[in-house]
Amino acid sequence: MARRSSKGETITALLESATTVFSQVGYEGASLRDIAAGARTPLSAINMYFGTKSDLFVAVASQLWREIEVERSALLAARIAAKGGPADLRDIVFALVKPIVDRARSTTEADRRLPNLLRRWVSAPPDVKVELRRRSNTADSLRRWIDSVRGVCPTLTKSEAVWGFSFVVGALYSWEIMDNRYDEVVGSPDDDPEEIVEYLVEFAVSGMQGLVDRAARKPGLRRGATAA
């Protein structure tokens, strides 16, 4: 007689199957029957442990996002420990971008599920996106990283730090990193993930320094005006 799976095993199997299915076909294209079949569980198990399709999607995406944030924190802590001093902008950007780049350029399908899911989550209904932001604490994450940037670039106003950060994040989640879109057009060879991380770090450092230099060219600008 086959052993019955425990609740924990069933939940883990459903999350694994759902991560794969959602990353492959997006929210709208995902079938709960396919997810249950992939987990080798009855369809009713999804309703029992998660509720609706949107609840399952949010659970999957939140779990992946938490894993990324844990890895980012560990990378930043390791950089700080290695240098024996406070973090600088290079350390912060390195920790921010490396987990995403590594997964997007991985040769392992399981690693690529997160970037694939990020690419496809735009198909999710607005209320699902709102719930995902709430459950995954993305607002807290954004504040944390933007505050970190302001901490190492103290002459930047809040507005400058936010815009600079948004440009870096936009580059991180670009078509080229997520799915090699420009390689398809111009035939460029794939870049090594470590090189891509260095490109992003240099882009961020140069861009932030450009904002600092811009402010220095405007001696009449009151630096505290938009810092609140």
What would you note in describing this structure?
- The chain is an all-alpha fold and 228 residues long.
- The protein has one domain (7-216): Tetracycline Repressor, domain 2.
- The chain has twelve helices and no strands.
- Helix 1 (7-29) packs across helix 4.
- The protein is elongated, with a radius of gyration of 21 Å.
- 28% of the residues are buried.
- The model is unreliable at 222-228 (pLDDT under 50).
Quick structural summary:
The protein is mainly α and about 230 residues long.
SS elements, strand count: 0
Please tell me how large the radius of gyration is: 21 Å
Assigned CATH architecture: Orthogonal Bundle
Count of distinct structural domains:
1
Please give the largest β-sheet: none
The top-level CATH class is Mainly Alpha
User: Helix/strand/pairing class, anyone?
Assistant: mainly alpha
Strand content: under 5%
The coarse silhouette is elongated
Individual helix count: 12
CATH superfamily: Tetracycline Repressor, domain 2
Low-pLDDT residue spans: 222-228
Kindly, what is the distance between the CA atoms of the first and last residues, rounded to a whole number of angstroms? 65 Å
According to CATH, the fold-level topology is Tetracycline Repressor, domain 2
- Percentage of residues in helical conformation: over 70%
Mean pLDDT: 87
